[in-house]
Amino acid sequence: MAVTDDRVPAGSSPTGEAGYGPAALAAAEGLAPESSQLGDVWRRFRHNRLALVGMGVVAVEVLAAALAPLITFSNPTTNNTTLGPTGPSLTHWFGTDLLGRDIYARVVYGARVSLKVGILALVIALVIGLVVGALAGFYGGVLDGLLMRITDVFLAFPYIVAAIVLIVVIGRGLNTVILVLGLLGWMPFARLFRSSILQIKELEYIEAARAVGCSDARIIVRHMLPNAIQPVVVYGTIFVGTAVLSEAALSFLGVGALEPTPAWGLMVAQGKSFMSTIPGMLFFPGAAIFLTVMAFVFMGDGLRDALDPKLR
Fold first, then answer.
1. How far apart are CA 147 and CA 165, in angstroms?
2. CA atoms of 48 and 208, how far apart (whole Å)
C-alpha cells in the first residue's frame, strides 16, 4: 500500500515537480523574483543624482520647446528698433536685444532649434556609424581594414574646421548645419559598434543563428544589435550635447544658423558687444547652452554606470 508523506504540500508531488517553480522557490527562501533588465537599469540610473538632474533639465527644455507659444509673450523674430537693447524688466524678463526682440522668447524658441539640431544630427551619425561598424565588425578582413582606414581619414580632420569648410561649400543654413554635423559625427559610433560586434560575433547564440540559416542582415539586426547597442546609447546621449555646442559655435562664428533664427549661438555673438553694459544679452543664451550640454553629459554618465555589465 502506498504511503503518503504529510510533509509534502498540497498540490505538489513528493519530488517537487509541481508547485516549486522559480518564483515559489524564491519566495520560500525569502527572495524576490528576478527583476527585469530595464528595471535594473532604471534603479542604477536613479541612484546617480547628477544623471537625474540632467534628465530633469532636458525634460524642462523639451516641455519649454513644445509649449513655447504658450509660455512666451512675443514673437521671437519681431523687430522693435525703437526699443533697442534693454536689460531685464517686468515686461521683458531677460531684456531685449539690439533689434528690440524679446530675449526670453528667443531663448525659449532657441531650445527648439538646439534640440532639433542635436536629435537630427544624432540620427544621421547613428545610421551611418551603425552600418559602417556592423559591416566592418561582422565581415572583417579586407572590408574591415578599408572601412576603418576611411574612418581614420575622417577623424584626422579637425571637427569644427571641417564643418566650416563644408558649410561654406554647401551653403549656410540650419539644415546644412544638421547635415554637416551628422556627416562628421558618425566615426565614434562606427568604432564603438564594431568593437561590440567583434566581442559577440563568435558567441554560441550567433553560431546557432547561422546554423539554422539566418541571413547576415537578420543576425546583425535581431541578434547582435540588441546586445551591442549599450555603448552606442551612452555615446549617443553625449553626442546630442556635443552637437548643440557645435551648432552654437558655428552660429557664433557666422557660418551656422541665419538671422532671424532664434539660435543661441547667434544670440551670444550679438551679446558679446554688450557684455559690459547689458550682460544679460550674453548670459541668458550662454547659460542655456551650458545647461543643455551639461545635462546631456550627466545623462550619458548615468547611463554608462547603469548599463555597465560589471555593475550588475
1. 23
2. 38
Task: Give residue-wise pLDDT tens across range 181-239.
Answer: 999 999 999 999 999 999 888 888 888 888 888 888 888 888 888 888 888 999 999 99
Q: Which of 233, 250, 217 is nearest to 304 (CA)?
A: 233
Question: What b/e readout covers 97-111, taking b as 16+ CB neighbours within 10 angstroms?
Answer: bebbbbbbbbbbbbb
E strand segments, the chain = none
pTM: 0.83
What single DSSP character describes residue 112?
H
Cell of 288: 542655456
Cell of 120: 537630427
Distances (CA, A) of 286 to 107, 115, 273, 279: 10, 15, 14, 11
Element (H, E) at 246: helix 230-252
Alpha helices in 1-46 (DSSP H): 22-28, 37-46
